[in-house]
Design brief:
Blueprint: E1 19-23, E2 28-32, H1 33-43, H2 50-58, E3 65-66, H3 69-85, H4 97-111
Parallel strand pairs: 1-3
Antiparallel strand pairs: 1-2
């Protein structure tokens, strides 16, 4: 222990705080926090992305994020454009973004 009597150890962050859970109609996905941050950065490019950004910002660690069909449609569009600009296409996107895209597409297809 240091001379001042204070412990300098770092407390590990619980793993559940390093991830975000997203509920679609057919499945629940887990995304690393770093991918959430990258997605929020991407959404800032779009005027229509503010409601989705707000939803991703407001979600807590204990409950999954739920989006409306309108938000899912917009998020799917954003991810597809992002994938077109990314080296390696969709598979070049941050972890779990491609899986989110696929889940959104599947969910919207079954909502019709």
């Amino acid at each position: 222990m240091p001379a001042d009597g204070c412990s300098r150890s770092l407390t590990a962050v619980p793993e559940r705080l390093d991830k975000i859970t997203i509920a679609t109609g057919r499945e629940t996905l887990t995304m690393p926090w770093s991918s959430r941050v990258a997605l929020l950065d991407e959404l800032q490019r779009y005027e229509t992305g503010y409601e989705i950004r707000d939803a991703f910002t407001a979600v807590g660690a204990s409950s999954p994020l739920k989006l409306t069909n309108e938000q899912k449609t917009e998020l799917l569009r954003v991810i597809e454009v992002w994938g077109q600009r990314t080296e390696g296409g969709m598979r070049g996107l941050p972890e779990a973004i491609f899986a989110l895209r696929n889940a959104l597409e599947d969910d919207l297809h079954h909502a019709e």
